[in-house]
Amino acid sequence: MSRPRLQTEALVVGHARRPLRAALDLRPEPGTVTALLGNNGSGKTTLLRTLAGMLPPVSGRVLLEGAAVHALAERERARRVAVVLAHRPRTGLMRAGHVVRLGRLPWGSRWSRGSNGDQQRVRWAMEQTRTGHLADRMFHELSDGEAQRVLIARALAQDAPVLLLDEPTAYLDVSQRAVLMRLLATTARQEGLTVLLATHDLQQALDTADRVLVLGPLGVHFHGRPEEAVRNGAIAAAFAVEGLRFDPEQRVFRALE
Amino acid sequence: MRPAAALVVALLALLSLLIMSLGTGPVTVAAHEVLGALFAPAGTDPTAVAVVRGVRLPAALSAMLAGVALACSGAVMQTLFANPLAGPGVLGVTSGAGLGAALVMLVPGMAQAMGVAADAVLVLAAFAGALAVLAAIVVADQRLGDATTLLILGLLMGHLTGALIHVLQVAAGERALRGFVLWGMGSFAAVGMDRIPWLALPIGAGSAMVVAHMRTLDAMLLGEDYARTMGVGVRATRTRLIVATGLMAGATTAFCGPIAFLGMATPHLVRAALRSAHHHLVLPGSALVGAILALACDLVVRLADGLPLNAVTSLVGAPVVVWVLLSGRRWARMTSG
Fold it and tell me: What is the pTM of this model?
């Protein structure tokens, strides 16, 4: 299933007086996962929020299925791009299944509790994220890993062709990170989703992502296949810190002897 | 508690309270006579009919309407500002009503100048005061677009109108002052049957607007950012809901005077009882429990002759709010406050 994609044209993000980087022309393929890598302050979150239409671009455009994201009405935008934010929301006494059902909000009418199609999509999203058994649990009682999967199920229920995630693995333990990244990659491929995620998890990103976009202080350091980023030294350069050396075999930074 | 069981309990409580309320007062009317007066007035003692229908029914109706309006406004405000201590008066709308009332009651000649019956002037002025503050808040919301700043602005607005009322009080004569203090105590008894539709109209309109936003309000529980990504026009939604709650709380205050704590406390009781923050449960639940509590407080007022309504609602409501504060950590974990 080929879906119209996310595209940026000469996009500059950040604050008007302090734009973060040179113009970005992105055109991520449907069915792939692109990982945004970079140190804190390199602008990963700013870029994601601009792509999601939550921040205005300094210049240039973000196009969702051909339409400028900032010109779209909220509802129409939510049908084209779903977002998982970095912080875990505090929902009050809300059940996990209800959190997922909220993903249908941009599709339903104001009055209906959800059509058959809505229910099917919700069930599918919860199966896909293995959260079906959590439906009746209180969201605030879930572990961080469970909560993150529920939030992703909510985003999948939204049925948007573009999925943006900010640090989806931040609070998870190692095994959960691997599970989550594989889940995202599989879903992207199966559904033809365009997935972009900002992450600090270098190893997971290099292992799972189809493309990496490495952001450095001077702008885009590298955009391409993860193996390439490792081989040509882009990773080592972007995260260069005195006293550390990047080990391209193990894909980790090590202290110099 | 399961919603269905809770609904049955609440409805039974409401009905029995209503019958008690209609039967209680200087003239005691037995339950069967209350029912007779309501449903078969021809075959019932005319005194009972006059008392129940003419005096107590309008008071009970205005109490229930006020309870619905205040509790639903409180529930909406708490979600809108992600703040457990928000209530119908948090944006200064009810103090605006107070200022309107103070203007006509405390400034000599003001009521006569408007040439309407004095109590109608009071209601109109109070409602106008509420609407004026509401309009100011909506304009500010269009400019600010940030819930926290708006909340602070609303609190300041409340203080400002409070200060203006104090200024008016200093200049006012003793009789006018006493009248205003009486209004400030709150009462459900002042609304005659002919005025009930005028109270019900804004409350009905506000409730309809709120009901239309139940799913959106659920999304707002995840925070404004998440709501936005799910297609909610946050600012427009907030403006509409501020208008809806302003109409409800403004009308209630105009007719019944300021009534403390009911709007803030009721939604907490409902959430705790149903163990749910879903608005399709919390809003009807708050409406029902708000009506019950208002009736109960009114009953206490009439049993303990001369006790101000505001004191009774505070005695009931303040402990609930204290309980919310004491379990503040739990709230902090559960909400985006």
Answer: 0.90
